[in-house]
Amino acid sequence: MQRCNQGFPEPDAVFPRDRTGKANARRAKIVQAARELFAEHGFHATSMAKLSERSGVLVGQIYRDFANKEAIVAALVEHDLDEFLAGDELCAARCTADRTMVRDWIARFIACNDLNDTRLIAEIMAEANRNQRIAEIFDAMDDRLRGQLVRALKIIVPAAPDEARLARLGESILIMAGGMCQRRLMNARCTDPDVLKLLMDFIDSEIAAIERDQG
Question: What residue ranges define each of the domains in the chain, with the CATH number in brackets?
Answer without folding.
Answer: 8-75 (1.10.10.60), 88-214 (1.10.357)
